[in-house]
Amino acid sequence: MPYAHITGWGMSVPAHVLTNDDLSKMVDTNDAWIREMTGIRERRIAAENETTSTLGADAALKALTVANVSPDDVDLIICSTSTPEYLFPATACLIQDQLGASKAGAFDLLAACSGFIYGLNMAAQAIKSGSAKTVLVIGTETLSRFVDWKDRSTCILFGDGAGAFVVQASEQPGGIFGGVMHSDGSGGDSLLLPAGGSKHPASDLTVHTGMHFIRMNGKEVFRFATRVMAKATLDAAEASGWKPEEIDLVVPHQANLRIIDAAARGLKMPLDKMIINLDRYGNTSTASIPLATVEAVEGGRIKPGDKLVFVGFGAGLTWGALAVQWTGPLPTDRKVNLKQNYLWARSRSIYRRIGRIIEGILWGRNA
Ligand code: ACO
User: What is the pLDDT of residue 211?
Assistant: First the structure.
């Protein structure tokens, strides 16, 4: 059975920074409260021309560059997001088109902030079963578009961004080991976006009552998160045959510093074994774990051979953890020219669109 290795990584965040001081001019809040209660100092907000798919595709392209893999070699794209561009088509398909990943299947996965862990786990299963050799897993969000900027209890928390991993098959031991995935739908109303789906389709009423914004019972989510984080981490390590003391670093979902601190105490680990970057990006939901990982790898904190556990929780309620021995790019003699690939992908997509228009004219209504 092949092993599933993380061989490429990339991130993409909007340039626009929204600080706590900026927020204090929009709602009744202040920097000291936000920092003390959450650990967040600033977050990134997508510009008008940035979307969930453009951020995701940018992160994915960087991950493919690190792995030295052509988009044509990708078998499957799993895009985890709670802020898709449309209910359908899947954001994964928009990214597939932007990358020119011509042979890839593509689908979205919705497990809120646990989504990247679910997606990585699915990618590893696809590789271990032999159904895929190269999988792109992307976590991407534009939460700023669903935040009520008048609600100080939620608008201080969230930010936009994307992270991506390339997962590849190899006979070398290592990579993604055991994991756990859990859910408890009885807590679904603790954190939800009520309107826009089939239960409450968009209407004057949903817009006027703000049902298209994120609603959260912060205290309930906080209690749930502190209950599950440490146990899920230990369960993932155990499922991989690792003792707790073998874990080098934990990459937790970046929601709140106090939740991460509680998890560290539950694990009897010093806080410096936790990778933390929420001070600069806030809660980017499913993008938070890859964003924290990419920065830690690029900063030299995560090195090949390190034993990591990714752990997250989120709306659903969902939670999960995954044990990973960090690898790095697989050795290859091939040099992929991704810029050329990207330009070719863009023109191929345009030709396909023109082709569809011509086909429509030729066949008309009789097709
Ligand atoms: N600025 C200043 N004061 C505020 C603010 C603010 N932004 N927000 C609330 N307050 C006030 C409240 O009005 C309240 O005042 P009062 O005591 O006079 O009534 C006081 O601060 C305490 O407010 P609470 O809402 O009770 O604060 P709490 O201790 O619950 O902390 C927080 C709020 C930080 C949101 C916390 O509940 C939390 O982090 N929960 C977890 C949220 C989370 O992780 N969500 C993401 C899940 S992942 C996903 O799926 C997207």
Answer: 96
